Amino acid sequence: MELVFSNIAKSFKRGAKDRVVALDDISFSVAEGELVCLLGPSGCGKSTLLKMAAGFEFPDTGSVTADGKPVCKPHPDRGMVFQDYALFPWLTVEENIAFGPEMNGTDRREIRERIRRFITLVGLTGFEKAHPHQLSGGMKQRVGIARMLAMSPKVLLMDEPFGALDAFTRMEMQEELTNLWQAAPFTTVFVTHDVEEAVYLADRIAVMTSRPGKLKTIVPVPLSRPRVRTDHDFVQIRNHVLKQYERTQPSAAEYSI
Amino acid sequence: MTYNGLLRYIQGGIGLVLFLALWHVASTTGLFGRIDPEYSLLLLPTPETVLKAIVETFQDGTLWGNVSVSIIRVAIGFGLAVLIGIPLGLGMALSPSCNNFAEPFVRIFSPIPGIAWVPLAILWFGLGDKAAIFIITLGSIFPIVINTVQGVRDVDAHLVDAARMMGAGHLQVLRRVMLPSVIPYLVTGFRIGLGFAWRVVIAAEMVGVPKGIGYMLGVGRSTGRTDITIVTMVTLGVLMLVVEELVFAPLENRTRFWRRSVAV
Ligand SMILES: Nc1ncnc2c1ncn2[C@@H]1O[C@H](COP(=O)(O)OP(=O)(O)OP(=O)(O)O)[C@@H](O)[C@H]1O
Ligand SMILES: [Mg+2]
User: Is A11 in the pocket of ligand 1 (CB under 6 A)?
Assistant: First the structure.
């Protein structure tokens, strides 16, 4: 499934008459089977853009299309990992994961199989019967990922899915995602503000700047996988991406690496 | 049992025994010599007399007869309040025009205590079950409506988004997201509503609606059987305690355990 964002602008009300421009004339596309990272500082509109692709938020002008059709409401073809997890607190981990497949009428045996497979994948074996309030932030985040994968969507929309993980688990999950994606390349939009993560995962990196949220440039990452973070080319690209911020944003301090 | 648990029972038990002893002495000594002991035995019968009265009223059927009348009234009145209150609350929370229509009434009528309806209810329906049921329904419906509205409004919009993302339709969102989020609020509404229902039915029965717990309270007084009045009071307390411990406490635990991390 191909995603096309064309000339997207969006502003939000702030206070009585004041409006804040969240997104300003953003255009780019994600090809079938491509993994694009949206990279940018906090508040530049990454989540807003992703919610538009999911069908929760709508642009003031411009459009988002999936395989040529405008996105007007959420659809299980486009799975999303929410920045704040959005797990059902009254369901156990496995019930949360089963929710998507249950909605599209998958049979029970297949659901069990997917639960097992994705719980193992995200490293939560033993927590099947736990409730979200008994999990750490990073564990909840992984349930969110497993839940999205279990609905076998055509497009993956991931909003800082590894944001709450420690450095080691994060690297592990990046590797898992790469493996999964290489085995069956699904169209993916991956939001992050970690440059290294973007270079490790992406085919292309959409570099955004904030106030107002604009697309600065798109950096291709023509490296073969698995990628090695210490390789000369890897470091080169990482530095190139970082430079995008140096020139436009003197206040690069608020930007986290 | 833990040490603290044991301590709780022992200390609670000691307190109760002390209270009963004090009661006994007060009623046999004429309230510590302030009045004629014969008179004080009438005003405040000893715990033993009350126990005897419990056995007596239990055996001759008056206790259960009256209690069951009140329970049935509350069951019908409260059941009506639930049947009307939940749909009304859902309507108010989900449809702005329904809310605009109903909100003024809810805001005006909900602060009026159910007891205030007793005179009108008796005038309209006479001294009978209908009047009792009418005021029970009126007295307990508002907490149910208000909590239902609040529950639906507090449903986490992100969870609705997540469900829709996974392909849930309107009905599935209602059943799998709204309902589990709202149930804890309903339980709270029921608990408050039922508390009101009890107070109201007793008040109605005390001022003239025949039979029932409130009636028994009044009869005890007017026939000089203070012991029966006290029996009725004890019964009321025990009844509420049983409902609380056997129904609401477990229900709250089961339906809102997942909120514990936030609430407690
Ligand atoms: N529902 C909303 N109402 C008002 N303003 C909003 C809303 N959603 C987003 N905004 C504003 O739009 C801008 C972009 O928000 P968005 O959540 O997309 O940022 P982000 O890039 O995802 O940031 P972060 O990295 O911190 O998650 C922010 O200035 C935010 O205040
Ligand atoms: Mg965000």
Answer: no
A110 lies within 8 A of chain B by CB = no
Give the CB-side neighbour count of residue B212, counting CA atoms within 13 A. Answer: 25
Structure tokens at A111: 């659901």
Structure tokens of B7? 């301590």
DSSP track, A41-56? -TTSSHHHHHHHHHTS
Domains of chain A as residue ranges with CATH: 3-77+153-255 (3.40.50.300), 85-152 (no CATH)
What is the secondary structure of A171-201 as a DSSP string? HHHHHHHHHHHHHS--EEEEEES-HHHHHHH
Instruction: Give B259's pLDDT tier (boundaries 50, 70, 90).
Output: confident
The verdict on A161 touching B (C-beta cutoff 8 Å) is no
Which ipTM was obtained for this model? 0.85
Q: Which residues of B touch A (CB under 8 A)?
A: 156, 158-159, 161-168, 172, 176-177, 180-181, 257-262
Tens digit of pLDDT for each residue in B8-60? 999 999 999 999 999 999 998 888 888 888 888 888 899 999 999 999 989 99
**Residues ≥6 apart with Cβ < 8 Å to B183:** B151, B255
- Residue B66's identity, in one-letter code, is N
Q: Taking a C-beta distance cutoff of 8 angstroms, is the pair B202, B118 a contact?
A: no
Whole-Å CA distances, A2 to A106, A149, A188, A206: 25, 18, 10, 16
Q: Apex CA A81: angle with CA A75 and CA A83, to 5°? A: 125
Residue A50 has, within 13 A of its CA and on its CB side, a CA count of: 29
Cβ contact A151:A101 at 8 Å = yes
Least CB-CB distance to A103: which of B161, B172, B258?
Answer: B172
Nearest-angstrom CA–CA distance, B143 and B148: 8
* pTM recorded for the entire structure: 0.80
Token pair 């005890």 in the structure block, residue: B220
A90 touches chain B (CB under 8 A): yes
Report how far residue A6's alpha carbon sits from residue A9's, in angstroms, rounded to the nearest whole number: 9
Alpha-carbon distance A231 to A228, whole Å?
6
> B241-245 — which CB contacts under 8 Å span 24+ positions?
B243/B194, B244/B191
pLDDT at B262: 43
CB B145 within 8 A of CB B109: no
Half-sphere exposure of B200 (CA within 13 A, CB side): 32
